[in-house]
Amino acid sequence: MAVFKVRYFSYISAVFNFFLFSDISQVNAQAPIQAQWSSRGYGADGPWPAVEVTVGSDSKLALFPGRPFQTFVISTDYCRLNISEGCYASMAGTYNRAQSEMERTGSDMGIRFSPPHKESMLGMSVRGGDFVSWVDSADIGHARVADSSLVLIESQMMAYPGGQWYPMSAGCLGVGGPSAINQSFTTSTYPINATLIPGRLWERGDVPSNSFGLHIGSMQPPLGGSLWFGGYDQNRVIGDVLVTATSFHEAPITLRDISLEVVQGASPFTFDTKQDNLLTANNDTMGSALPVYVDGCSPYLTLPKSTCDNIASHLPVIYDSDLGLYLWNTSDPYWPLVVSSASVLAFTFLASSNTETLVVRVPFSHLNLTLTAPLVNGDPKPYFPCFTGGDGLYTLGRAFLQDAFLGANWNQDKWFVAQAPGPKVQASPDVVAIQESDEVIESGSNDWAASWDGFWKVLTPDEVDVGPASTGLNTETASPPGDDTAGDGGGLSTGAMAGIGAAAGAVVLAFLAAGFLLWRKRKARAGSSKRRQPVDANLNGCHEDGVVKGPGGYRYGNPAELRDTSPPSVVRELDGNAQWLQHEGDDNNGPRTHELA
User: Fold this and answer.
1) Which of 215, 238, 256 is the last residue of a domain?
2) Tens digits of per-residue pLDDT, 361-382?
């Protein structure tokens, strides 16, 4: 009888535990899953934050997150092609195709589809051979997704306006697609399904929906990234949320304007608080707005050259025509003031109502990025990431996503954009699940300006009163040395007369400088904020004879030295069949949700 009771209660206990822990498991399974971030940054034009993913049996990779559908990974063969200059991709890790085939974890599965080059990195020109579609497992966070849809990067490079090709630094993590659990590909025999990460996690009940929420954060000032599948960190969403249909590679959002704004303190610019109309000025063909894409694989702010020039006309920068980028003039006294100030580049987006807008602000400390080898030779160079190259797809990349939240609920074919916080955000996340039926998401209660307290400098009037730019002002050619020998026996030598003249000139200049400084001091005390004259509007941007003009129209030196424009030593087949898209051409009563048609 005692044995029966023990067995009976053991049976009851087992049944009870089964249902109890099954329920607990189900609850845990429905929680959003967090991706793990690398402790270091990657890229020759960042550095940029990246997530850690294990592909196949043991290929540990750092990937830039933020593209729909497939995950792009760099293969070990890529390093063999770029061995002469060093394989920069090896820092982020590469995928061993041969090993995966030998271990039977990965294969092309007979898939014939090769993604167009433009899909790998919107806003950039990508050249090289055809991409290879691939299937292998992917471990992200504590979840494994078998048969993940991958694309191998084996020979492709980024092509810049000067004709140079540069290797990629890291691959890119796919974050799902509208109404898609997997992708079906044609083979010579039967269709093959390759899974997408959030779709597969939702299908098997690991997360509450086929969705994601992303804020990549930044390396400087340091702010860890946030990527959740099945939900998002509400602390990373501030203010209004823009809602758009389909995906961010298929449906551009409407950029209505770009402006420079001084949020707090004195202005390091020629204006006091705001300079708008930078998107369309000096461009009669653009119209009143511009469709732009969002892509976490793309590094820059790829915009029309007229727009970049409009912005650059207010900044101490030098245009590098080879790279299509703007180098910060670090010799200019206004450079450290601008990049540390409480000033922003503000992007105004239009909602479907054509009256409501969303503004995403990017502080200049996030626009003071660094170019390193192989993009530049020698010492690293600070640069401003407005990019004038590409193949016609205007795109907001990682430079924008440092300060923007990007998310989607693929169950409803909706994706979201909002302002993200600065580095003073709460350390512990406030994770909110995205349900299958959700067509909108809610923002948190953070104050955006407060999230930057202590991380930017609130300038004083005295600090910004540093005088005109110090670089490139002297454009005269030096005269040849004078003859220092004596004349015909009388008077002073030419050298002596030159010395006396120089001394007299120095005295005069000293008096003039003292008078000028006294006048400036009195003017500053009088409260004048107009320190420099604005750039002449007739310059049609900021270029004159190839020289960039900065604040006040001052010349910031000669154009950047052109690099060798010869193609790479390894000749690669160009993709001549790619079809490129063509473009034609703040807050009331709390956060709102704006939907685009």
Assistant:
1) 215
2) 999 999 999 999 999 999 999 9
